[in-house]
Specification:
334 residues; four-stranded antiparallel sheet; three-stranded mixed sheet; 7 helices
């Protein structure tokens, strides 16, 4: 026996041409293409849906019909699924299914089904809910996609009133390099709701990772600063040691020192020791600092770092005249 009721959970399709929101199923499959036992399963769901309708359980009946139509998309099932959706209040779904049923009825010369489809289309159309997507010029960024209930809306459909089932719907606007915008749109029966898409917030460009060894530059300058202090102190102590050496020579004759000569001798030794320690450490620190600056990576903006090929790092030893005829000198240029 031919079924007189149908079911489908087809997705909503936002298309401008037919102004129908729901995707419509294709033509019925040939019997040879049906999986074994599919007709029996579809028939069982169909009969259960009829019983549910008799008990007034419309949503449950529609779900059974949708399952029946997925398994076996018979034209009669499509028509009755439309009638079930109409009772359920899904006017846009019913309207799309009735229009498809009308076309099938015309092709198959089913005047009875054609009459039913026309009558219900005429009854539903005044109740149709619609929505309009408004996208201002400032919001139209490259790659913008607007979705309603997960279905992309063609750009050509922006600004067009499109049928949709009454109730709450999920709206999404997204584009590459922009934050996704999400909102809820509530549509009332026989009303037109407008979805205004705002200007999306741009996602900041990711900063490129800093090259390895970026720490070398600040450490290198720190080491040069330390070396300058050490070399300066070492020079001071060296000069003092030489100066005290002259005083020692004046106060000590034939290995015998007076009090002033003895004090000069002791102080000179301490100053010489300090100079001998500080000057090598200062030179070593200068060398390490220079090495870090020379090997530091270039700056991330593409400009050479201060440690590039034009940077000049130099530690010099020189000579200056000291009281009593001694000579000592250390200098640097960075």
């Amino acid at each position: 026996m031919l079924r007189s009721m149908i079911g489908s959970d087809r997705r909503m399709a936002l298309a401008l041409g037919a102004a129908a929101l729901l995707l419509v199923p294709g033509s019925a499959r040939a019997d040879a293409d049906k999986p074994l036992g599919s007709s029996a399963m579809a028939e069982a769901l169909f009969k259960e849906a009829k019983e549910l309708l008799k008990r007034g359980k419309v949503p449950e009946a529609c779900r059974k019909l949708e399952g029946s139509y997925r398994i076996d998309p018979a034209p009669g099932t499509l028509l009755n699924l439309a009638l079930c959706h109409e009772k359920e209040g899904k006017t846009a779904s019913a309207w799309g299914e009735l229009n498809e049923s009308l076309q099938i009825a015309k092709k198959t010369n089913r005047k009875d089904r054609e009459k039913i489809a026309r009558e219900h289309i005429a009854a539903i159309e005044p109740k149709l809910s619609r929505f309009v997507v408004a996208v201002p010029a400032e919001a139209q960024v490259n790659g913008l996609v607007v979705e309603m209930d997960g279905v992309p809306l063609e750009k050509g459909a922006w600004g067009t009133a499109i049928p949709i089932d009454p109730g709450e719907h999920a709206a999404v606007a997204k584009a590459p390099k922009y934050r996704t915008w999400e909102s809820k749109l509530t549509v009332e029966e026989a009303k037109v709701a407008t979805l205004l898409v705002p200007k999306l917030e741009r996602v900041p460009d990711a900063k490129p990772p800093e090259p390895a060894g970026q720490w070398k530059k600040p450490v290198g300058y720190s080491m040069l600063g330390v070396s300058a202090v050490l070399l300066g102190l070492g020079t001071v102590f060296g000069v003092r040691a030489m100066s005290l050496g002259n005083e020692t020579a004046d106060g000590c004759k034939n290995m015998v020192c007076n009090e002033a000569g003895w004090e000069a001798l002791q102080s000179g030794r301490s100053s010489a020791t300090a100079a001998n320690v500080l000057l090598p450490i200062g030179l070593a620190a200068a060398g390490v600092g220079a090495f870090f600056l020379i090997t530091a990576p270039r700056s991330t903006d593409g400009a050479p770092s201060s440690a590039g090929k034009d940077a000049r790092i130099e530690v010099r030893a020189g000579a200056v005249a000291l009281p009593g005829g001694g000579y000592l000198g250390v200098g640097g240029a960075f």
